[in-house]
Amino acid sequence: MKPVAIYRFFPIEGPGYFATFLDNNHIPWQLISVDAGDPLPADVHSFSGLVLMGGPMSVNDDLPWIAPMLALIQQAVDSDVAVLGHCLGAQLMSKAMGGVIDLNPVKEIGWGNVRVADHSVAREWFNDLTEFESFHWHGEAFSVPGGATRILSNHYCRNQAFAKGIHLALQCHVEMTEELVKKWCEANISELDGASCSSVQSVDGMTTNLTARVTELNNVADLLYSKWITGLKY
């Protein structure tokens, strides 16, 4: 089987639980560390699927890898090579598919509930799940591109996820592990200092009951990732 390509854009925003899921399901994967200068493949057909992780940059930044990454996503969507995006990765998907990325009304950082839309496309991904607690860390948000369907939303961000066929874009972070939560809190403490809005949690708020929260989130990720891998190109 061809490997799943996992694109990392920032050192501490790796694949997290998604890599564990692939290992548990005996699916090979290859990490492409864009942050470390790894070149982007010119052709998506060497991989069974494309997975895009998060990062603190904006898809609207003038970075040398963004335009080639957008072209690679377009190629994958046009070729029915399954694409999965997490946060920044979802924003890259939206832009590649004709969407727009702007500032979200508020920064959303920490644990918070998201609602599953009540329609058939959402149920294909979530079965009978109607709401769950996810992890968030973003200041921008995407529009839902033409031909795609919103499947998640919440109070702070209208577009938390969209799907188009087997392609899935998630503004929220379902890939979290306990280690990732702790690393992000430690590395980004300055972003939390003095924050008084209800959409930004303290470190204590993010790490309370962490094992139980991550375990529940991993169960939701299993549901989504299990659906996504049915579209892999063997």
Which key features would you list for this structure?
Rossmann fold, alpha/beta, globular, nine-stranded mixed beta sheet, 234 residues, 9 strands
Summarize the structure in words.
The protein has 234 residues and is an alpha/beta fold. The chain has one domain: 3-Layer(aba) Sandwich (Rossmann fold), CATH 3.40.50.880. Helix content is 32%, strand content 25%. The protein has eight helices and nine strands. Strands 2-1-3-4-9-8-7-5-6 form a nine-stranded mixed sheet, with helices on both faces.
- Average pLDDT, all residues: 95
Multimeric status of the protein? single chain
Class from secondary-structure proportions = alpha/beta
Second rung of CATH, namely the architecture: 3-Layer(aba) Sandwich
* Highest-level CATH class: Alpha Beta
- Uncertain runs are none
Strand content: 25-35%
- SSE order, as H and E? EHEEHEHEHEEEEHHHH
Largest beta sheet: what is the strand line-up? Answer: 2-1-3-4-9-8-7-5-6
> How many structurally independent domains?
1
**CATH H-level superfamily:** Class I glutamine amidotransferase (GATase) domain
Helix count equals: 8
Alpha-carbon Rg, integer: 16 Å
- Biggest beta sheet attributes: 9 strands, mixed
Distance between the termini: 5 Å
General shape: globular
Total DSSP E strands? 9
Helix content: 25-40%
Q: Return the CATH topology.
A: Rossmann fold
